[in-house]
Amino acid sequence: MKVCVALLVVLINLSAAWADGLVFDDAQATYNQVKTIRDAHGFHALEALANDWRTSRARFPSGNSKLHAFYLVVAEVKGRDEASWAAVRQFNEDWIAAVPDSATARIAAANFYMNWAFHARGGGFANTVSDDGWRLYRERLAAGMKVLQDGARHGADHDPAYLASLIDYGNNLDDGIDVDKQHWLQCVAVDPEYWSAYQTLAFAMLPRWHGQAGDGAALADEAVRRTPALGQTAYARIAMSLGQYRNVGLYTTERFSWPRVKQGFDDMLKRHPKSATLYYQAALAGQVAGDKAYTAAMVNRCGTHGWGGIESARLVRIRTWLKGP
């Protein structure tokens, strides 16, 4: 969830429209829409919106799920102090009390508990976590898992976010990759383009967690076989999600194929030809692969348009890299 929250911030900074018809994902408008309802404690309105986006499989121009963004916003904690965390916890309890049969509220609460657990643990290596940090981490994970399991009794298994959360909890509670993979397969059946589930499982399969070198590429292979109508899209999506982590060795240790990743971006852009977000991500992928010709083509497609916020610095670094030897 911590990575997903960072992704939401990036998407908001990339919310813009360009004169030539390319558009970034309208994440800012989506964020404002959900946050306004959340801040007003409009529990039934949140239910209606989530149900609409769940049943319609609402997407941004890039193909990313609006339902995924919904859950990021409702679990957001603005402050880092304990009062801020307590306020969101109370919000979740009030939501469940107002709509007792809500699966959506329980998924949101479970996501909150995951974030709260990592707030206690911290983001450092395991040997840097205090005894108290570990205790609170485990207690909060257990509380979140209990809420998530309760959601299953209220129809949560029809929501891809529930299944993605089960993968996240399974990874952190050491349920085992086989269990996590079964939840992923269920998610593919519910919504084959709910990319958060793919990304969460791929992360769990890294050697730093519960996998071995090359497991991510093997998952990408299987994902392509299970989504034949999407070409190499799933392969590129999984590679893109793992490429954001330092020292992964995407094309060495993890054994991904750059030609297949490129084909995956081609397949995505055929389905989403106006997505500036995808052109931007393709440029980043090209830089990770060291393919200057491809990266230059993606950057040139975007021209001199502004990239907004924190990402502008990354674009400058890409252009500097392209000018180098």
Shape from CA axes? globular
Round the Cα radius of gyration to an integer and report it.
Answer: 20 Å
Number of helices: 16
What is the ordering of alpha helices and beta strands?
Answer: HHHHHHHHHHHHHHHH
Distance between the termini: 38 Å
- Low-confidence sequence ranges: 2-19, 306-310
> Biggest sheet, open or closed, and with what strands and sense?
none
**Strand pairing plus helix content: what structural class?**
mainly alpha
What fraction, in percent, of the residue positions are helical?
Answer: 55-70%
Approximately what portion of the residues adopt beta-strand conformation?
under 5%
Please describe the topology of this protein.
Layout: H1 2-13, H2 27-39, H3 43-56, H4 66-74, H5 82-98, H6 103-121, H7 131-152, H8 160-172, H9 177-190, H10 195-204, H11 215-226, H12 233-243, H13 258-271, H14 276-289, H15 292-302, H16 311-323
